[in-house]
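Appendix B. Chain record.
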Amino acid sequence: MELVYLRTFVESLEAGSFSKAADLLCVTQSAVSRRIKFLEDQYGYALLDRTGPVLVPTEAGKIVLDKARQLLSIENELLKGLKGIGKREGLSFCCTPGFGTAFLPRVVRELLQTSSEMHNMQFFLDMPDAVLAGVQDGRFDIGLLEHCEQFDFSELQTVVLPDDDVVFVSAPSLAIPAGNVSVDVLSRFTLFSRREECCSTKFLAYNLKNIGLSDAVFPSQVIFDDLHQIITSTIDGLGVAFTARSLISEHIAAGTLRAHHVPGFIHARKRTVVLRPCFVRHPLADLLLKEIQSCFE
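Structure tokens predicted for this chain:
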């Protein structure tokens, strides 16, 4: 188990409330609550008595509190032993795969050229809900989501980026005219897509539902977990795909792919940067955000 859950448990008891613990840990109050629930589900006991003005441990909570303090003490001793190595506080950034594939290499390249602090940064890719949960729970400091869902960002700092255009694409060999085209035409071909929890797949399902259809309208579908494989298969004329224009803009410009919009579809997908409040003025966060925004200038 990650010690962050035990540390949150100890901080909650020492502070007396979830809200005070959240301030100390620089996370949201809901993140603290989720961590405590995780512990209670993990051990099968209620660990906190929430009925009074301040939090107190239950009988099971007293056992966990004692052992948690011992484990955290061991971790502190470990960190003291490593102090001389020179590792400094870093910054973690997690984004959805579309942005990661299309823009993250450029962002990293620019940061390498402008900052000597790149060794203090960590980069991750994940699905929108996992990115948001990671920032809320404190596992990531900054997140970037490409999303069609209406997420609750109320306890985080946000920066809205230009929308992402998600389109159907096909190879010229399939002879589908560029521009507006019906689902009936596109469904004659194999659909290449990613897992159902992935951004573009969820966005396609959302759009099909809005016009009274389901993904069953595509009788032939192939699921890949690799965006590059989807793009390559589409360029080879083996089927069509529904993907972010930013991923295939060069292929559209070169004429190796054609872009298609479907009447009735919402093709604009939101992009939002979310930050833990205490990182709003962090110099590395500021530098990272400027490089992200420069991708859309």
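Further analysis of this model is presented in Appendix C.
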